[in-house]
Amino acid sequence: MAVAEAEREDEEDWDADEALARACRIVEALLFASVQPLSAEDLAKSVPANVPIERVIAELQQTYALRGVTLHRVAGGYAFRTAPDLAYLLAPEAEAPRKLSRAALETLAIIAYHQPVTRAEIEEIRGVATAKGTLDILLEAGWVRLRGRRRSPGRPVTFGTTPAFLDHFGLDRIDDLPGLEELKGAGFIEGRLAKDLTVPVPDDDPGLRDDEDPLGDLFTPLDDGDAS
């Protein structure tokens, strides 16, 4: 009797190991084929139901820990990235990083921390006018998106960041951006600070806020009453 039970347990363990191995191969293939990070929920749809996706991810992270590529959590999902100590080998082949002007960097930072934010609000925070081309560059890069329209005179468009922004800058979530103390510690903010100076906690929730309406047709002129 004991021998039969032991054999059954061994068979169940073997089945579980086989299911885990297959799940790892499936997730590995999906991640290598994808051009963007994949969430655990998306990955779980393709693996055997009896295999927890968290275990699969942990297994792959351990497997690839010392290899040329490693598994990272970025933009709310998972993706393979070149091992940090080998990144220099790919530098000649890598696409030249997009160079942003100071105005574009400031605009991107304001959108990231203050989203949803309108162009007028960006200009108020920066203290200078923002050229249309600056926002166009950020939109074309895929780091900024049009969110909706503010429920205010003229119904201005609101801007927010995208998952591609998180992926490019190696962030898992938007609140991984540094806060005031981290910015001070890194030397980005020096000298005496105004007592009311704060760095907002960023929030990139895709849902529209109470003061936002859907974009609608951007090419349809607004009613005179809305534009007043």
From TrEMBL:
GO terms for biological process: cell division; chromosome separation. Pfam families: SMC_ScpB. Residues 199-228 are annotated as: Disordered. Keywords: Cell cycle, Cell division, Chromosome partition, Cytoplasm. InterPro entries: ScpB_csome_segregation, WH-like_DNA-bd_sf, WH_DNA-bd_sf. Residues 202-215 have a biased composition (Acidic residues). Transmembrane segments: none annotated. PANTHER family: SEGREGATION AND CONDENSATION PROTEIN B. This is Condensin subunit ScpB. It comes from Bosea lupini.
